[in-house]
Design brief:
CATH superfamily of the largest domain: 2,3-Dihydroxybiphenyl 1,2-Dioxygenase, domain 1
CATH topology of the largest domain: 2,3-Dihydroxybiphenyl 1,2-Dioxygenase, domain 1
Strand content: 25-35%
Pfam families: Glyoxalase_6 (PF18029)
Number of domains: 2
Largest sheet: 4 strands, mixed
Low-confidence stretches: none
Protein name: Glyoxalase
Number of strands: 8
Organism: Streptomyces griseoruber
Mean pLDDT: 91
Order of helices and strands: EHEEEEHEEEH
InterPro entries: Glyas_Bleomycin-R_OHBP_Dase, Glyoxalase_6, VOC_core
Shape: globular
Length: 121
C-alpha cells in the first residue's frame, strides 16, 4: 500500500479569501474553488498543496500545526509578508532566529533564517 500526500487542510471562516491570500503570498496556483473549499498547489500537477475548508466556529487556541518557510532573505521576506497582510505574533517563542507571523485569520507560520550549511551549499 502507498499513500500520496495531497494537501494540508486549513480551516477558515473565508476559504476563498484566505486561500487567495496564501496563493498570492506563495506564488501558487488555484486548483479548486467552491463555496466551501479552495485549494492551491505550487503548480497544477505538483503536490502537496494547501486546501482551505470552511469552518464557521472561531479559533480557540494556538495552532497545533504550522508551516515553516526558508526564504533566501529572511528580513526581506518578513517585510513582504507583513506588507501583504501578515502580522508578527508572539506565541512565547522568545528571542529566536525565526520570525513568527500570522495570516489574516490568525494561523501562525514561521519564516526561518537559512542554516549556515544551507547558506554556503
Amino acid at each position: 500500500m502507498t499513500l500520496e500526500w495531497r494537501h494540508v487542510i486549513v480551516h477558515a471562516a473565508d476559504p476563498a479569501g484566505l486561500g487567495q491570500w496564501w496563493a498570492d503570498a506563495l506564488g501558487w496556483v488555484v486548483v479548486h474553488s467552491s463555496a466551501d473549499e479552495f485549494a492551491i498547489c505550487p503548480a497544477p500537477d505538483r503536490l502537496p498543496g494547501l486546501e482551505f475548508v470552511r469552518l464557521d466556529e472561531p479559533r480557540k487556541a494556538k495552532s497545533r500545526l504550522h508551516l515553516d518557510f526558508v526564504p533566501d532573505d529572511q528580513e526581506a521576506e518578513v517585510a513582504r509578508l507583513v506588507a501583504h497582510g501578515a502580522q508578527r505574533v508572539d506565541i512565547g517563542q522568545g528571542e529566536q532566529s525565526w520570525v513568527v507571523l500570522a495570516d489574516p485569520e490568525g494561523n501562525e507560520f514561521c519564516v526561518l533564517a537559512r542554516r549556515r550549511q544551507e547558506a554556503t551549499a
